[in-house]
Amino acid sequence: MRYRSYLPASVLVAVAIFCAHSCMAANPKITQAQIEKSLKSNPESYAVRLQAGKYFEEIGFAGEAQEQYLAATKCKDAKAEAFNRLAQMYLQDRQYTKARSAADLAVKRFPDSYGAHLTSGYIYHNQNDFDRALAEYKKAQTIEPKNPQIYIALGDATMGDGDNKGALAYLQKARQLGPETNLWRYQMGMVHKNLKEWDKARDFFEKNFDQDPFNRQSNLAYVNMLSDSKNPKKDPVKALEVSFCLIATAQGNEMFQLKVRLKTLIAELRPSQVESAKNAALARITDTKLKARMLFCLGDVFDQLNLPDWGIKSYRAGLAFNPDFARGHLRLGIDLEGYGKDKQGALREYETALKLDAKDKETQARLQNLKRELKIK
Question: What pTM did the predictor assign?
Answer without folding.
Answer: 0.85
